[in-house]
Amino acid sequence: MNRKNKERVDILNKKIKILSIIFGLLFSLAVVTFFTVHSKSKNTESVFISLNSQDFSSSLNEKKDIWVYIGRSTCEECRDFSPVLESVLKENKKQVYYYDIDLEREKDEIEMLEILDILDIKVVPAVIHLEEGKITKESVGYQNKEEVEKLFEF
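^ that's the sequence the OP posted. Answer follows.
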C-alpha cells in the first residue's frame, strides 16, 4: 500500500471512530430520554379529577360524599396553592375533584354561578367536603401544608 492510500485509510478510520462516538452518544441520550419520560408518566397520575358543572350538579343532587377543589387557572393564589394541595394528596395517595371556574364559565356561566351560589363560594381557592349535599368541611384561600393535612385529617 502506498503512502497516499495509507493516509486515506487513516482519515477514513478517524471518521468512522468519530461517527461511532456520535452515534453512541445519540443512542445513550435516546435511552436516557425514554426512561425519564416513562418513569415520570408512572409517577404523575393526577390527584385532581376534572369536574364539570353538569357532573358537579349531579353530585350535589345525588348527595354524594366528595372532596372538591374549586379554583381558577388564572388565579395567582390558586396557582400557589395547587402544588401544596397536590403534594399532600400524593403523599397520602388521595384524589379530589377539581372544578375550574374559568373553564366552566366559558361553557355555561349561568350554571357555574348557580353552583357557586348554592355552595356560597365567594373566594377561591376553596376546598370543600360535601356530605349529603352539604359542606361539612371547608378551606378558603391559600393554605400551607400543615393546614391542608389538618383539613383532610391526615
